[in-house]
Amino acid sequence: LAFNTFGRIFTFTTWGESHGPAVGVVIDGVPSNFLLDLDFIREELERRRPGKQGTSPRKETDLFEVLSGLHEGKTLGTPICFVVKNKDRKSGDYDTVSHIYRPGHADFTWHRKFHHVDHRGGGRSSARETVGRVIAGAVAKLFLRTKGISIGSKILHIGDQLVTDENSPEKLALQAKHENDSVGGMIEIRAEKVPPGLGEPVYDRLDARIASALMGINAVKSVEIGSGIASASMKGTQHNDPLSSDGFTSNNAGGILGGISNGMPILTRIALKPTPSISQEQNSINHLGQPAKVTVKGRHDPCVALRAGVIAEAMLACVLLDFFLLNKMRRW
Ligand SMILES: Cc1cc2nc3c(=O)[nH]c(=O)nc-3n(C[C@H](O)[C@H](O)[C@H](O)COP(=O)(O)O)c2cc1C
Which of 15, 156, 167, 285 has a beta carbon 3.0–4.6 Å from 186's, enabling a disulfide? Predict the structure, then answer.
């Protein structure tokens, strides 16, 4: 078991390293005879792409090639393989840190676990891997759309500053960059028109699967559902969502009760840590355990939250579609 695959019925397997020739994804469990809107998948990748204001200046076009699973634009029900070439690799930027663990990065843990690591651009631990997740998520969104379900996200704050019309996420992220620093952020992700009945009551709860999927994104340090952390300081009279004949009148539950969707919007928030790569000198050790100073070069996002919304939406879409297909298997 190597755990590069996500999902049970609707599954995707990502592959590739940040500075290898390409990254990609193999998506399986896709129902057949479905016209796949490749332009929509391109649009979703464009939302994730680096090189825009306030993000990493790495210039990737993120154009994909489909190698299998489609004929005349429609799904065959066989695995769909997408390949995205890595075009803008500057691996030399990583030469000076090849034997030093960069603080906040996966270098230390990967080296201790695997003993042989592609350090260039973070290798497989780089968020370049999320290209495959966004493609799989776009495919899932297209299926969910036929059920009326839409998924969106917005950045709530960058560092301790609320995002407003005057304070755009890009502006707040660039402030951190000008200080040679990075900054964290909070994103809200919403799925509208999810019907009641997705998820299982005990070991396959919808909220547990969503939390795992979102927590599995690089740099995510907390996941909230509904009123989340604030629930701990609320009273039952405030937190219970009253029912009326038109449905629930509030949504502290975030659309999930007892592990099962209740028909209200699925509401989640994720907190992302500040980008670990900062251009200031930091203390670390080398592979021999000796003290070493490290200044991280390369092109980096001053705030990873700027590009993470579409990735979080993708993971939520894949969880929801998987539960739809699981429900189909359980009911005659
Ligand atoms: C969309 C996105 C972009 C990212 N870009 C960078 C980056 O440019 N530089 C960097 O140091 N980390 C970046 N990260 C974060 C690292 O991948 C991550 O923090 C690191 O691999 C350690 O993993 P962990 O934070 O999940 O423990 C990015 C994360 C995401 C979600």
Answer: 156
